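Hey, quick one: can you model this chain's 3D structure?
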Amino acid sequence: MRSTNLIGIAVGTGAFLAACATGLEPSSATTPSSQGSPSSPSPIPTISLTEKPPREPTDNLPDTGWVAGMVTRGGSGPCYGLTADDGTRYALYSATGTELAKGDRVKVKLETTRLKIYCGPGSLMAMTASEPIG
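Sure thing. Here's the predicted structure for all 134 residues.
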């Protein structure tokens, strides 16, 4: 009985030392007969560095300022649709209650917004002012 205890202690100590050598937690170590061959740990992912930072912004935000175009979704808000003269589609948000009619040509002042709402297809922008065009 005493030799059985010593063998058990020796196996447990061997498993503990093997776990420490491979970086495993001691509680996850098992007896050598039930454990397969130890696998090598996978390499740590790294970020490759570039030689120089990019010259242009990499998160290309929509332009802000005044944009002219045609209203594609009108009403009294808070969401509108606009197709700019350059073909860019905008989903506009404004809580001021501005009345825009579908098909009207307007000039609107745009600002970026952090709101997470859906105002239809297009780049979501905040409309801070609008003026009819001729």
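One thing worth noting: The radius of gyration is 33 Å.
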